[in-house]
Automatic annotation (TrEMBL), chain A:
NCBIfam families tied to this protein: ATP_synt_6_or_A, PRK05815.1-1
Gene behind this protein: atpB
Function: Key component of the proton channel; it plays a direct role in the translocation of protons across the membrane.
Matches recorded under InterPro entries: ATP_syn_F0_a_bact/chloroplast (IPR045082), ATP_synth_F0_asu (IPR000568), ATP_synth_F0_asu_AS (IPR023011), F0_ATP_A_sf (IPR035908)
Membrane-spanning parts: 44-66, 107-132, 152-171, 216-239, 246-270
Organism: Halomonas dongshanensis
Localization per Swiss-Prot or TrEMBL: Cell membrane; Membrane
Annotated Gene3D superfamilies: ATP synthase, F0 complex, subunit A
Sequence similarity: Belongs to the ATPase A chain family.
Domain of life: Bacteria
Protein's name according to its UniProt entry: ATP synthase subunit a
Protein topology in the membrane: Multi-pass membrane protein
Main location: membrane
From TrEMBL, chain B:
Keyword ATP-binding appears in the UniProt entry: no
Family: Belongs to the ATPase B chain family.
SUPFAM superfamilies for this protein: F1F0 ATP synthase subunit B, membrane domain (SSF81573)
Record's protein name: ATP synthase subunit b
Residues that span the membrane, as ranges: 7-26
Topology relative to the membrane: Single-pass membrane protein
InterPro entries to which the protein is assigned, alphabetical: ATP_synth_B-like_membr_sf, ATP_synth_b/b'su_bac/chlpt, ATP_synth_F0_bsu_bac, ATP_synthase_B_chain
Keywords per UniProt: ATP synthesis, Cell membrane, CF(0), Coiled coil, Hydrogen ion transport, Ion transport, Membrane, Transmembrane, Transmembrane helix, Transport
Signal peptide from the UniProt entry: none
Coiled coil: 47-89
Subunit structure: F-type ATPases have 2 components, F(1) - the catalytic core - and F(0) - the membrane proton channel. F(1) has five subunits: alpha(3), beta(3), gamma(1), delta(1), epsilon(1). F(0) has three main subunits: a(1), b(2) and c(10-14). The alpha and beta chains form an alternating ring which encloses part of the gamma chain. F(1) is attached to F(0) by a central stalk formed by the gamma and epsilon chains, while a peripheral stalk is formed by the delta and b chains. F-type ATPases have 2 components, F(1) - the catalytic core - and F(0) - the membrane proton channel. F(1) has five subunits: alpha(3), beta(3), gamma(1), delta(1), epsilon(1). F(0) has four main subunits: a(1), b(2) and c(10-14). The alpha and beta chains form an alternating ring which encloses part of the gamma chain. F(1) is attached to F(0) by a central stalk formed by the gamma and epsilon chains, while a peripheral stalk is formed by the delta and b chains.
Length: 275, 156
């Protein structure tokens, strides 16, 4: 889109940053939000169809691809797909082995799921920002934000899952008593300091999922905004900034997926350890 | 940026994906990977073992070769020595045989000489008697002069 006046540019940016929201509107009832304001008015009982759709599509793509590689897996000379998949698996295995010190076979597959899923979701960013919104507009759908990780609900949702796993494994490994003791008696092992310890530990526990979610969301959202701003330039100038930024994002996309995965493994490793 | 049900939906999707991955995706690939790793490790192991075996065999072969060479030279030397010994023995034997032959010949000659002498003696005594008979024209009594004639023959 060529740069118009200030209003249309603002509208363009806002439009591209608005999710396709389905929910219960106080006035319209169960419906798709046709403006950002309507989406806000729907409150919590609404769902971002684009975020859900694209993230599930990416998750299914990941599982399908890797399952296919797993079915064909031979111990002989691997083919192209198997080779690539094995490389990723080995990478994740090494990551898990070096960071995770407990005994849990499920951590490595968990890390694999997170890494590839987030990587695929982030990668959707490389697709030019106008393609899908315009395509869906032709189909009569007002909004289409295709990168799920630029939606804080998606990143916070995953982080919430990780948070639940942290709690689950803490309780499973240390028992309810052990976990409570850890929360109340570290870092200062004195009964007088229990309230202080509790405050400290609970804050640090709650910060974990938030830092995970916000780091990924912040990076992806900021990147997306820059892409949209670049798209406001005259069409012949877009590639000048768009190409370097996209190339840079190959790094960012991988790095953010990696950081999310690594931190998850680190947090879960801490959950498995006795202090 | 609204927080809404998407949060819950995403958590559920996350849980399902992780479960599926743990159950169906990770194990076959991981197993294949580890099995191949083991296979490769075994292969490398076997290769290094084979190299070691080869080295050992080569060493053994060269040692055997060295030993057999030594043995051959020993045998050769022994044969040479034996040959020399045989030649020496033959020489000694030949010399002894020669000496024996010479001694035999010498003894025979001596015997022949003796016999000739005896014969000659007998004939001479007979001749002497015949000569004396002719000279004296009388027969000499052989019996009376036998002792004298024998003495004469012994002096010849």
């Amino acid at each position: 889109m060529a740069a118009g006046n200030e209003v249309s540019a603002t509208y363009y940016i806002q439009h591209h940053l608005q999710n396709l929201t389905f929910g219960h509107h106080p006035v319209n009832g169960w419906s798709l939000a046709s403006t950002s304001a309507e989406a806000t008015e729907m409150g919590f009982w609404a769902i971002h169809l684009d975020t859900m759709g694209w993230s599930i599509a990416m998750g299914v793509l990941f599982l399908w691809l890797f399952r296919k590689a797993g079915k064909m897996a031979t111990t002989g000379v691997p083919g192209g797909l198997q080779n690539g998949v094995e490389m990723v698996i080995e990478f994740i295995e090494n990551l898990t082995r070096s960071t995770f010190h407990g005994q849990n076979k499920n951590i490595a597959p968990l890390a694999l799921t997170l890494f590839i899923w987030i990587l695929l979701m982030n990668s959707l960013k490389i697709i030019p920002v106008d393609y899908f919104p315009v395509l869906f507009a032709k189909l009569g759908v007002d909004y289409m934000k295709i990168v799920p990780t630029t939606d804080v609900n998606a990143t916070l949702g995953m982080a919430l899952g990780v948070f639940m796993l942290i709690i689950f494994y803490s309780v499973k490994v240390k028992g309810v008593g052990g976990f409570a003791r850890e929360l109340s008696l570290t870092p200062f092992n004195h009964w007088l300091l229990i309230p202080f310890n509790l405050l400290l530990e609970i804050v640090s526990l709650l910060v974990k999922p938030f830092s995970l979610a916000m780091r990924l969301f912040g990076n992806m959202f900021a990147g997306e905004v820059i892409f949209i701003l670049i798209a406001l330039l005259p069409f012949w100038a877009i590639w000048l900034l768009d190409v370097p930024w996209a190339i840079f994002h190959i790094l960012v996309v991988t790095l953010q997926a990696f950081i999310f995965t690594t931190l998850t493994v680190v947090y879960l490793s801490a959950a498995h350890e006795h202090h | 940026m609204n927080i809404n049900m998407t949060l819950i939906g995403q958590t559920i999707a996350f849980a399902i994906f992780v479960w599926f991955c743990i159950k169906y995706v990770w194990p076959p690939i991981s197993n294949a990977l580890h099995e191949r790793q083991k296979k490769i490790a075994d292969g490398l192991d076997a290769a290094s073992r084979a190299t070691r075996d080869l080295e050992l065999a080569q060493e053994q072969a060269s040692q055997t070769l060295r030993e057999s060479k030594e043995q051959a030279s020993q045998i050769l030397e022994q044969a040479n020595r034996r040959a020399a010994q045989i030649v020496e023995e033959a020489r000694v034997e030949a010399r002894a045989e020669g000496e024996r032959l010479i001694a035999g010949a010498r003894a025979e000659i001596e015997q022949e000489v003796h016999r000739a002498k005896d014969e000659l003696r007998a004939q001479v005594s007979h001749l002497a008697i015949v000569g004396a008979e002719r000279v004296l024209e009388a027969s000499v009594d052989e019996k009376t002069h036998r002792e004298l004639l024998d003495k004469l023959a012994a002096e010849l």
